[in-house]
Amino acid sequence: MLNGFDWLRRSRTGAELLGTLQYLDEQPVAPPELTPIGPPHSAGGGPCRRCWIFPRAAEDTQYCSTCQEILRRCREFLNTTRYTTLVWGFVNQLPEEVLQQPGAKRLQRLLGCYIHDANHFLVAMERNKLKAWLQELTVYHGLELRGILQIFPTMGAGTRTCMGDVLCRAIHRDLYLPLGELHVRFYSAPYQLVDPRPRSSKGMLTFELDEFLRLLEMAEIFRALVWPEEQRELYELFRIGDKKEAQFYWGRFLGRLEQRTKDMLTAWNMRQWPKNRIKLFYELLDYVRLIQED
Q1: Which site from 6, 91, 233, 244 is most exposed, i.e. has the minimal number of CB atoms within 10 Å?
Q2: What is the pTM of this model?
Q3: What is the C-alpha to C-alpha distance for residues 188 and 196, in angstroms, rounded to an integer?
């Protein structure tokens, strides 16, 4: 009665979405057995309070057996979801990393995977593994893979929009995108999928895959060479509007840095970057792992 995507749409939080992905990975058909529709809603009972279709598993619970299992699994992801990113793909062919069966290599990197049809898929992973996963796509598929990858984070409880609505927004957005070269659309927050025009007008939304990977590589180097306190100080420095004041503090800031860090900032000409590029770059710092430099 409900397919896999229907169950995903019922996720209110990122933890529920991850729990649903894990459940569907092990049990593609839910519920696993033929189950009648639950009784109508009434003061003394009714159907499951989550899916509103199937009967409650027992008199002392409000949920059906499937929803109970999903909610049980979602407790395992309450902390993980804060560091999770989702990728909704609309491509000309499904990547091999997505087609591999449960228990195979892909589950060592992915937290969950759902194949919608021959052109659409959803994967969840820890955000600092995004760069390695994208690199695998380029290595194994090269120019054969075309389409769009929409990258966005999960969300917690306490917001007016639920995770299922955000996922539907991502699917709605790919209707307007042709299957040309492989591109990436990066959303740093779920609410940006509601209206991506402000981000798109600032050049912070759509990138070619090679360009996006270069930004991630630069973010990884930056995070390795610049201490967190220096990162915050540098960001505040870029926000100074007065050019003479910015020049003064820029000189003082460079004077405290190691030579290799100075060389990096000079080679990248980072001081001349537009503010929108700086904001995007700092958003990407959360998506790369910390490399310990010698």
Answers
A1: 244
A2: 0.91
A3: 11
